[in-house]
């Protein structure tokens, strides 16, 4: 497990997963084992959203890909490629056509193996800058490769009535719970503030929107996304693709706690 320290903040990362971000004794990240979700963060790539109604098949210019909900990246293991007291860099790589065992099979999926017809590398960097935690995603691969990207962190709630402030709208926990598993879209937004007992702001670059999800009152997922998958029928998820250029795609999320 990697540990980052700066000012009075401490971050713990387990195999690339953000499992704790404390400012003093105040915990920002949902804790595994608590009700709500078995993880504390993950990435959604190269697909965001459910694929079951499309038979787990996604069409690309290089053929059909087999993808489960939110893609296959989560099935790959990170390796540490650089680390210091305040920064750590993780890397996942994938070779086109490699069959990846689907951890949801057979209990929650009929797709035993997942595939993608493109090579890619996916770098995730955590850097603690004072009391701010910056998380940067760098995607490199074949020019023209289609993709969607979503970051799926879960946050610990300290109060009964937290408010999510988009700058244009205030969203209650009840609003998020009411949408259920589909997740609530926050369109054309790059900054959100969670007003809890202390709270924090999330600022993003390269994503464009958010979606909000929870099914319990003790945590909420505030997820930066490049595409909201429930805006289309599942058979047309490919309409949400962006495409890699010659240069890597770089997106970032900065978590800024209140003092």
UniProtKB/TrEMBL annotation:
CDD domains documented for this protein: Aldose_epim
This protein's UniProt keywords: Calcium
Gene3D superfamilies: 2.70.98.10
Cofactor: Ca(2+)
Domain of life per record: Bacteria
InterPro entries, per the entry: Aldose_1/G6P_1-epimerase, Gal_mutarotase_sf_dom, GH-type_carb-bd
Pfam families: Aldose_epim (PF01263)
Subunit structure: Monomer.
Protein name: Aldose 1-epimerase
């Amino acid at each position: 497990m990697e540990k980052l320290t700066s000012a009075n903040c401490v971050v713990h990362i387990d195999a690339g997963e953000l499992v704790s971000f404390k400012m003093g004794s105040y915990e920002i990240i949902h804790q595994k084992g608590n009700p709500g979700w078995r993880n504390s963060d993950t990435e959604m790539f190269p697909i965001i959203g459910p694929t079951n109604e499309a038979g787990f098949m996604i069409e690309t210019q290089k053929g059909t890909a087999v993808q489960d909900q939110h893609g296959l990246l989560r099935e790959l293991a990170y390796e540490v490629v650089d680390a210091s007291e305040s920064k750590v860099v993780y890397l996942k790589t994938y070779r086109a056509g490699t069959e990846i065992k689907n951890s949801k099979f057979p209990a929650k999926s009929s797709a035993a193996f997942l595939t993608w017809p493109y090579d890619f590398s996916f770098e995730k960097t955590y850097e603690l800058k004072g009391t701010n935690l910056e998380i940067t995603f760098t995607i490199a691969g074949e020019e023209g490769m289609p993709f969607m990207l979503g970051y799926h962190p879960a946050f610990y709630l300290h109060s009964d009535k937290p408010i999510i402030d988009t700058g244009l709208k205030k969203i209650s926990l009840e609003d998020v719970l009411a949408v259920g598993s589909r997740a609530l879209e926050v369109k054309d937004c790059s900054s959100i503030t969670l007003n809890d007992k202390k709270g924090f702001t999330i600022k993003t670059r390269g994503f464009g929107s958010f979606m909000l999800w929870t099914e319990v009152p003790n945590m909420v997922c505030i997820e930066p996304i490049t595409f909201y998958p429930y805006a289309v029928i599942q058979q047309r998820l490919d309409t949400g693709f962006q495409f890699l250029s010659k240069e890597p795609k770089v997106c970032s999320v900065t978590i800024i706690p209140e003092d």
